[in-house]
Amino acid sequence: MTKPAPRPKTRIQRRNTGAILEAALEVFSAQGFRGATLDQIAEVAGLSKPNLLYYFASKEAIHLEVLTGLMDTWLAPLRALDAAGDPMEEILGYVRRKLEMSRDLPRESRLFANEILQGAPRMQPALAGDLKALVDEKAAVIRGWAEAGRIAPVDPHHLVFSIWALTQHYADFDVQVRAVLGEGHDPFAEAEPYLETLFRKLLAV
């Protein structure tokens, strides 16, 4: 017997689910998974705890839902790297997209970093699955460009790691960056030309 399709969510259900996930992002990125509580998430969402539990059975379920949505967002800039494009511009475009993501989605970056620092207990399958497969695919593209003499020889996986480190730092360590630079500085605007120069020199033939 075919299982009936689930009923579509009502407007109120969609609104409340969205409010819970937005609140969870705020709380988890600030407190980490262990420090966050259902009471905190419910308060930020403007819902009672019993109402929140109507939509999600546990803190773990909410956290997993937020991380699942985040993974799609996180992979999008790397997916956009085009094997048919100009190698230098494709790689620099990826650097810019990652820096923009750190500027525009700092909570998401910190949430991702917190999960990794805890050993990725809820994201390990995604890291070993979708993330690894995509990085391996794009690493093969970068390796092909290097072997064809279109960019300088470079270890493609460590190039990707370097891009992650040099862009996500501005979100994950925002307070430190701004404290060191002092007032009157825009870290992201200043970082972009520096990173472009750095990677152009690294990759130039």
TrEMBL record:
The keyword DNA-binding applies. The keyword DNA-binding applies. Gene3D superfamilies: Homeodomain-like, Tetracycline Repressor, domain 2. Transmembrane segments: none annotated. It comes from the Bacteria. SUPFAM superfamilies: Homeodomain-like, Tetracyclin repressor-like, C-terminal domain. GO terms for biological process: negative regulation of DNA-templated transcription. This is TetR family transcriptional regulator. Residues 37-56 bind DNA. Keywords: DNA-binding. It comes from Phaeovulum veldkampii DSM 11550. Residues 14-74 form the HTH tetR-type domain. One of its GO terms (molecular function) is DNA-binding transcription factor activity. It holds the Pfam family TetR_C_3.
